[in-house]
Design a protein that fits this description.
Chain lengths: 286, 269
Amino acid sequence: MFGQIKFAAKRALGLDLAGRHYAVYPDDTFLVSYPKSGNTWVRFLLANLIHPNETVSFANINRLLPAPGVITRRFLKSVPRPRILKSHEPFDARFRRVIYLVRDPRDVALSEYHFDLKKRYVVADMTLDQFIEPFLAGETSSYGSWWEHVASWVGARHGNPNFLLARYEDLLADPIAETAKIAGFLGIEADAERLKSAVARSSADKMRKLEKQDADKWTGTKNTRQEIPFVRSAKSGGWKDNLPRQAVQQIELAWSPLMNFLGYELESPELDPKAMPVWVKAERTT
Amino acid sequence: MSGVVKHLVAGYKRAVGLNRPGKSLVILPDDVFLVSFPKSGNTWTRFLVANLRFPGEPATFANINRLIPDPTATPRREFDRMPRPRIIKSHECFDPRYPRVINVVRDPRDVVVSQYHYHRKIKKIADDSPIEKFVTRFLAGETCPHGSWGQNVATWLYTSEGNPRYLLLRYEDLIADAPRELAKVASFLNLPTSPELLAQAVERSSADRMRKLEKEQDHGLYRNSRKDMSFVRAAGSGGWRKDLPLEQAARLEAAWGSLMKHLGYELAT
């Protein structure tokens, strides 16, 4: 009962979390990804690009590039338009303009495993092998499986001029060029100097330092196991050395058409590297 | 002041469970969702499934919101009282929280005609509003809050096809052989069934019976709509060939041809 009153009071004052129930405007742009796909890094890149004179940190990122899931309704109302918002939601028809960030699911599995240990979402002695089955079934995340998430967005919006597909791996390989693409999509005029500075201020080293400084101030790291870092390897291809072979095969067997489509090379020789998701196949025969 | 009163009323309704849960519905692990884009035969399928699941209580427009509840129309306390597993109506795009899904799809060329007439009935558009204009908005997903037809269908099909917890039904197949398609639903839901039970459910959900019920019953959803146009309209498939100009059909096919072909809808252009 007390909880209900507290919630009602928070709601009346606009201090409840916006969550999924908030007004979306047609000029909003959403930075969307499945969890553990480089979303926080790109948030820092964009915040640094948009606010060249502010020191972007884990303490203010929820304000500079808000995530409706963790900020209050009142604060969300005060954000000036056009807004850029962060989200992990699977397809939402209200999101008109979307930057969709995608990452190799073999690296996502590895990253999510460490994150879930940090957050105590899974038991501390869970092995990677044990993690893969629930990961594939979408049981380790409230946003569905990696396949469901990517297919819902890419299947519904691929080719739409208001949909920008960005690969985490491409951002790592050439952060300046890829950030420039995103800036162009957002209509931000950024010269080489500004892009370079945004990338430098969002480097993995910089973010590791910032994490140490503010781990207790950010929703993503507060009350988690501090001996496991949030900013981990910040690399691509970590699965090659750290994901058990069997797990790699399980992921590829389940999701190879979508991995092919996104250009993630398969390791399993028996899988067809040309197999594509349904929507691509159908387009080709039209 | 009226704002405060509204808040108080809403708070009272919430406290006693009279509010409509909408997207805040607490989903249970054995829930089944009956999902479709609007105007794709959802109400008919609701009647069919309700009549199969509750043979002791024939479905009507007066009880359907209780038998197969709709989170946007049914009070929360009905959801708490229902026998489980619950079967719940939805028009939403892909939602990973839905544990099991029956997805009804219909040829978008028929959907657009149906929605056009429906919007005239509920006075959302003028009676003489041209269909070309409606097709433009339909393509852009502006005629309802559930995405465009292509987006709504794609999010379900591309994420869930092949998943044993997902059953895809085509409205056209239901029209062609309702008992056969309903048998698929029975097996998906593990419901006891027999040819007699299936025939009874189909009979109780016939277009004629539904038209009769619609006339007799003052059901809230359509209360302020035009009485000279019925909610249960053609109840057939392929009507677009007569009612939709070919150039408008061509626009839909240009946008969603691949998806339509994947679903087995032959393209005309």
